Amino acid sequence: MRIFDPHIHMTSRTTDDYRAMAAHGVQAVVEPAFWLGQPRTNPGSFADYFDSLIGWEPYRAAQFGIRHHATLALNPKEANDPRCRGVLDLLPRYLDKDGVVAVGEIGYDSMTPAEDEAFAAQLALAISYELPALVHTPHRDKAAGTRRTLDVVAESGIQPGRVAVDHLNEVTVGLVRDSGCWLGFSIYPETKMSPPRMVEIIKAYGTERILVNSAADWGHSDPLLTVATGEALLAAGFTADDVDRVLWRNPVEFYGQSGRLDLSATAAGPSFAGSSIARGGS
């Protein structure tokens, strides 16, 4: 079973996680920019974070033969902080970079006017830079948030097939399926979506435009839940080809629209200057 995790926050994971992922068939990942838990106070802190996502994390992943890509954005939660608005001016510097395969995560957290503005502005950037968009749906008022999300996507003029709407569940999957956007599902140990629930959704809606990810952020999460979902699909009678489509070919198709996806074999290269890895410690 080969796996491409299309949404996983490896910044919050250890090198042991990379090792386990590689051992279980994870060959490629996309890491979206997100809220780090501690409020950031200026755009410069985002610049350092973006540099890490397009430099350090690809190197760290390569130690285990995993291809790492990123999506970059001002996330919905921090779009509400006036100190962070300058990130919208910073983004063009990064959206031309190799390995940046979408604008994201964008969308809604609390559905505020500030989030409306940041969402629309970043969809416009996705169009301008000919990149797909990865959209976060809110954890509260999810149905209303998803409907508003789809309205803003439609208003932007971006092609629905270039948009992945993530963190879906049984309540919102039909709305997004009918819109023509891609359907993203984050599999968690206790919240959002579980492997058995994901199996039932795929039974009902099929494998087309389905993206299954582990998210694997700072909270209670598991970077091997893509593997568990694949095993659950096989146990439910889906074919190996079905699983390959969901866990590999679908994310390749979606992010391949960026023209920047690199799935060639990777191996550990020379360490970055100043990196502690080459010296065996800090």
TrEMBL record:
Pfam families: TatD_DNase. It comes from the Bacteria. Keywords: Hydrolase, Metal-binding. GO terms for molecular function: hydrolase activity, acting on ester bonds; metal ion binding. InterPro entries: Metal_Hydrolase (IPR032466), TatD-like (IPR001130), UCP005295 (IPR012022). Belongs to the metallo-dependent hydrolases superfamily. This is TatD family hydrolase. It comes from Actinoplanes nipponensis.
